[in-house]
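Two proteins were folded this term; both appear here.
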Amino acid sequence: QVQLVESGGGSVQAGGSLRLSCVVYGVSSCWYDMSWYRQAPGKEREFVSRIWYGRTSYSDSVKGRFTISQDNSKNTVYLQMNSLEPDDTAMYYCKTTNCPYWGQGTQVTVSS
């Protein structure tokens, strides 16, 4: 059984930073391809970032501000978020990209 647990969300002012963490329990082959998504109130869930075999990708809206990384020794995926904007306000979820596992989400609120 694979379980994902996110943490690190909070409330910050525009221009601030947060680092989200996603600990993966029950690591399997699913660990090698991990993604972050977010969902703002009244909007569809959207892709934010992905890491797989050392490669990374980002949505255009966060490119240059967010950095995804992965620590194999801690079974943890991180999302470093800098220069946060009010439009980044959302619930953030981690997901095993090619397996059907989602975390419970962590709330990020950015005030102007």
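Next, the second protein.
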Amino acid sequence: QLQLVESGGGLVQPGGSLRLSCVASGLTFINYIMNWYRQAPGKERELVATIYSVGGFTIYANSVKGRFTISRDNAKNTVYLQMNSLKPEDTAVYYCNAERYWGQGTQVTVSS
């Protein structure tokens, strides 16, 4: 059974950093493009970052470009999202995604 488990969320002050992790099981991880999405209260879920399985090609939403970095460790079946220079508008539940599979989400709150 495929499972995605996120961790690393929390409360951080504006300008701070967090690193999210997502561990995948039940799949051949290297075969999957991995995504991070987020959903803020009252808003639609939006794609934040994507990383391809081979070569590490990445894509970012304009709102996070230059501040967030997605990476993956295929040996550990893990995808990461390093978030720097966090802003209050980054507050959301962050979800790991692989095709039709979703994690349970991890809350990120940016507030002073």
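The chain has no helices and eleven strands. The chain has a mean pLDDT of 96. These notes refer to the second protein only.
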